Amino acid sequence: MENKKDRKITAWFFVLVFSLVPLLTQAQEEISPGMEEDPSMEYIHDYLVTAAENNPELKALFNRYLAALEEVKQEGVLPDPQLSFGYFILPVETRVGEQKANASFSQMFPWFGTLDAKQRVAAERARIALHLFNVAKAELYRDIRITYNELYYLEKAIAITEENLKLLESFKGIAEVTFESGKAGFSSVLQVQIEEEELQSELEFLLDSRLPLLTEFEQLLNTDLEEPVDLPDSLWEEQLLLEKSEIYEEILATSPHIVHMRHEAQVHEYEAEVAEKMGMPSFTLGTSYTYISPRTNLESGMAIPDNGQDVFMFPQLGIRLPIYRKKYKAMKKEALLRQEAVGFEIENLENELLTEMEQRYRDYLEAQRKVELYTRLTTLAEQSLRLLQTELATGQNDLFEIIRMERRLLNYRLELAKARTEKNNNVYRIHYLMGEQHEQDR
């Protein structure tokens, strides 16, 4: 009877050993992922293209940009000319005949440079519209990358948890056999059951989290995915290629929010120029024509010079005198005050962005340290499992040391995947602060 139980324990031991082989192999792959030249291009590029094509906010902003371009064309032309026509119901008698009708044509010309100044305002507003489109696109790409990384981590956590539930099932079988053989107490069986219950609860939460995260990803793409999201076996690691001081300089120079406000300040500067030029005189150049019918009630033999001669007047000159100066001075002052306000907003925004940069850079360094830490710990845990496996076969160790080490390896692998996810996400957030998109998206 004793030999039969020993053989049963041995059988369960080999089940355990062969169950650990995939775990150790996958742990090694986690530590040394395949080196690809640009792995993110392969996995995420198509999702970025889909989002750019489908996103309704991007479409709306691009149409606003196109509309702003049409406004530039409108501001660069002269006002419409005026054409008028009049017919005298009661003709006006003159020496050379009756005035029957008249017509006039005139064109207004604003002060020199006014049209150019208005066009500069419209062109700068068009640049703002294009910049807002690019900002929204960069923000969308950032969110897609972050959500994609979160999907990777979630699927990795589900796979690791399911795998370890299978291992605990093997452990449970060994614990039951050792209890039946009298080599261990029932507490060993209960301990495995506790581990199993905890993992099962974690797995249920992870599975419940899959649908909300996938829904968020589909909303960013604005499409329903017909196939599962294509995820790598091991997440690549993004790197910050600039030093901290260089990142600061990039943020101050190219941050999308700061650049947007600088364009706003430029608009107000051009508006002040327009207000100044509107306070200058404008001129009207025109011509008029009066139709005169010849006199027919003249005495016989009487002749009138220029009888029935139409009247043509060219040029007719007019001038608009902006004598109410307070209006134009107020317009200019308003524009300059708005420009000054934007300057203060830029200064405040720079402080906020630098503070956020400090936080993101700290999180990036922390994630990088964790990647290095859990890479080392995973390697050590893998080696320990191999040693414990050998010691268990020779009777130098017990089963539950393997259980504890296996759980450590589980946690290290999860923490390594989480650290890689956080490291990449902070790189994407810092790139966004600098106004940069990922290399393949530019």
Give the structure's gist in a few sentences.
The protein has helices spanning 2-31, 39-54, 56-75, 114-180, 186-221, 244-254, 256-278, 325-393, 399-433, and strands spanning 82-94, 97-109, 282-293, 311-320. The chain has 442 residues and is an alpha+beta fold. The model is unreliable at 14-18, 31-37 and 438-442 (pLDDT under 50).
Task: Provide a descriptive summary of the structure in words.
The protein is α+β, with helices and mostly antiparallel strands and 442 residues long. The protein has helices at residues 2-31, 39-54, 56-75, 114-180, 186-221, 244-254, 256-278, 325-393, 399-433, and strands spanning 82-94, 97-109, 282-293, 311-320. The protein has a single domain, classed as Outer membrane efflux proteins (OEP). A four-stranded antiparallel β-sheet has the order 1-2-3-4, with no helix packed on it. A hairpin with a 2-residue loop joins β1 (82-94) and β2. The protein starts with a helix and ends in a 9-residue tail after the last helix. 24% of the residues are buried.
Keywords, separated by commas or semicolons:
rod-shaped; disordered C terminus; 9 helices; 442 residues; Outer membrane efflux proteins (OEP); alpha+beta
